[in-house]
Amino acid sequence: MDYKYLDYKADGKVARLTLNRPEIYNALNDQLTFELQDALKKIQDDDNCRVVVLTGAGNAFSSGQDLKGISPEPGFSFKSAIERRYNPIIRLMRGMPKPIICRLNGVAAGAGCSLALACDLIIASESAAMSQAFVNIGLVPDSGSAFFLPRLTGLAQAFELATTGKKVTAAEALSLGLVNKVVPADKLDDAVNEYVQHYSNAATKAVGLIKQMLYRSGTSSLEDMLTYEAYCQEIAGQTADHAEGVKAFLEKRKPAFKGA
Predict the structure, then answer these.
(1) CATH fold of the domain at 204-250
(2) Fewest 10 Å CB contacts: which of 41, 50, 98, 130?
(3) pTM of the entire structure?
(4) How far apart are CA 188 and CA 124, in angstroms?
(5) Domain 6-200 class?
(6) How far apart are CA 120 and CA 117, in angstroms?
(7) What does the domain layout of the chain look like in residue ranges?
(8) In terms of C-beta density within 10 A (0-12 exposed, 13-18 middle, 19 or more buried), how is residue 77 classed?
(9) CA–CA separation, 6 vs 160, rounded Å?
(10) How does strand 51-56 pair with strand 121-125?
(11) Which residues of the chain fall below pLDDT 50?
């Protein structure tokens, strides 16, 4: 697929995805969502890729659904549009056994906020902001926000954010547990690249298993997780990176993980 609205750069261990409609704050139309699905599938199948960065071009991350792309004609199905366009993206992001870092460079609203929350880490510029803007146009949260919000903030805060649609600053988002780190705008790339360097040289299969374990824990019992931990540890214990980690520990040096 040729990408018109998505900038996709694969550079060895790192894949960088940039939502590229800066003139309208990277609003999400049909084409961009399908391009994002395609790129995520390619990244998932790329054994060389060990970490993903998702960001927006210009001054915004994403303002959410391009409202001009919603058909006013009778018979338009919101359910069908969400299931074709947004849900596959969220499933790919959460199911991918590679860490996805959100470089939150500006506003993330509506489905744009959902995309940010679907990432595994969010590093935000001080000028960034987040908003569950759905209710402002008489809609409900979608693209995973109703799942992510209460798990990150607690039910009471999630209710307030979802039903008021208010914009929260980066500092407020940090205090609510929505983002991992907030830095000055001119330090954003440096902060993101610190994480990129860590994960591009980490034990990739172990990181992927940890991602799966932590996300499963929210809907599992302790007994289920004890069983699943043992299952995942068996897989991790057979990797070349585990052998390298033990060897490096015994030799008192930094491990040289290969992601295998």
Answers:
(1) Lyase 2-enoyl-coa Hydratase; Chain  A, domain 2 (1.10.12)
(2) 41
(3) 0.94
(4) 7
(5) alpha beta
(6) 8
(7) 6-200, 204-250
(8) exposed
(9) 33
(10) unpaired
(11) none
| Model pLDDT for residues 192-238, shown as the tens digit of each residue | 999 999 999 999 999 999 999 999 998 999 999 999 999 999 999 99
pLDDT for 75: 77
Q: Are 257 and 247 in contact (CB under 8 A)?
A: no
Residue among 257, 44, 130, 229 nearest 17 (CA): 44
pLDDT of residue 69: 64
* 153 φ, ψ (degrees, to nearest 5): -110, -15
In this structure, how many other beta carbons lie within 10 angstroms of the beta carbon of residue 67? 11
pLDDT for the residue 10: 93
Beta bridge partners of 9: 16
Among candidate residues 8, 23, 31, 53, the one with its CA nearest the CA of residue 200:
53
Please say whether the beta carbons of 26 and 56 come within 8 A: yes
